[in-house]
Prior knowledge:
Number of strands: 14
Helix content: 40-55%
Number of helices: 12
Structural class: alpha+beta
Amino acid sequence: MELGIKELWSRARAFWQNASPGLKLRLLAGVLLGLGLVGAVVFFSHPSYDVLFANLAPADAGEITQRLEELKVPYRLGGDGRSILVPRDKVYDLRNRLAMEGLPKGNAVGFEIFDQTKLGVTDFERRVQYIRALQGELTRTIQQMEGIRSASVQIVLPEERLYQKDSRPPTASVLVDTVGEIGPEKVRAIIHLVSHSVEGLTPDNITVVDTSGQVLSDLVQTENTPTGLTSSQLELTRSVERQIERSIQTMLEAVLGSGNVVSRVKAELNFDKREVTNEFFQPVANDEGILRSIQELQKTFDGQGGPQGAPGTPTNVPPTYQAGTGGPSHYDERQVTRNYEINQTKEHLVVAPGSVRRLSVAVMVNGNLTPEQQQAIQAAVSNAVGLQPNRGDQISVVSFPFQAPSPAQLLAQQAAAEQAARNRRLVVLAVGGAALLLLAGLVVWRLRRRAPAEVIPMPVQAAAEEAAPAGEESEQERIRKEVERLARQRPQEVAQVLATWLSE
């Protein structure tokens, strides 16, 4: 066996030493191509892995890997052992199967703690279990938010007191491990989620902290600020001020140039919500008006005798009294009372909060302005922002030369600009060099493809045939005839093969 291997090795060495450079090159190309094919087959036949679960607790990772070993499923660990990867075609099936088994459990325990009923549990233990389950459910819910890697919720529910004045409100704290930074909207969502999940818990008694120690709940503080405004009202005020400042800045910079104008606005908004009801009483359009009711009284008297009562008094002299001396008497009395509707108009007005109560505008211009120019700028800005002097709006336009940047700042800016220019030149040169190399390689390849096939001199071929033995001559003659036949039948393919050999 050893002799056979040595003999094969010696023959291979002799064959390699006697081989032509073209044959050596073709053999090397064939070996490399074979190795590449073997590598491709191994790579594509190897199963690709995808993430089954990520950011797992060590206990969950251990239970899941043990379950995968029982199921005889290959897996890999990644992300410092906190991620588990399985073959891609089994990810969803395994994820659903493990979820049915309650994996991963997470660091928190939810309301499944009450699935098993235990006898002899005291009220205190049941209360502790309820708080623990509530904390676990909130933790799981917060961890499902985008940008939250992990979370921990702690809730304090004070015991009920006999008197209301001795009772204390519940409080909660949330610790989150974030992926990057989260905005105030997401922090506000966490606060509202926790406050609406615990009875009696208000957003003011919830603290949200990240793992770096930053108090995130301060970003969305709901209580009044030192200015007396809530965070939403203060944000609206700043938004109005920035919008007015931006409009002034863009208008004046279009005339005076960029960097020559600085504007600041102080806005005072009215956040009082008012409901006004007005009643207006107006005279009627005509003399009669709208009749609501009428009362009419009519009296008639016929009889003998004179009037009764003291003579000469008004009671014995009615308007329609007619009587003779000792003869019959007759009188009529009629009273009419008409009641008209009161003509009035009622107006109910609701004033929405957020209206502008007062504006103060300050504009600084670079340079020295004439009084006419200063007055023109003041009038333009007043009309642009809608200043109303009757409500107390003020505007001030001041002009003076701005301070030029220091030499150190100029040098730093110049160095930064030069560095940026050098980076741009390097990028352009790199792209241009890569394009030139690609173009040169393409040209060389095309020239080699178009190189004419050289003709082997006949004397050399004849000398080789004469030097060959008689047994080999017939074989060479047969090969030569076959090559000639192929050259006559397929000249283009033969020429292409020869050109390829010459280029190699």
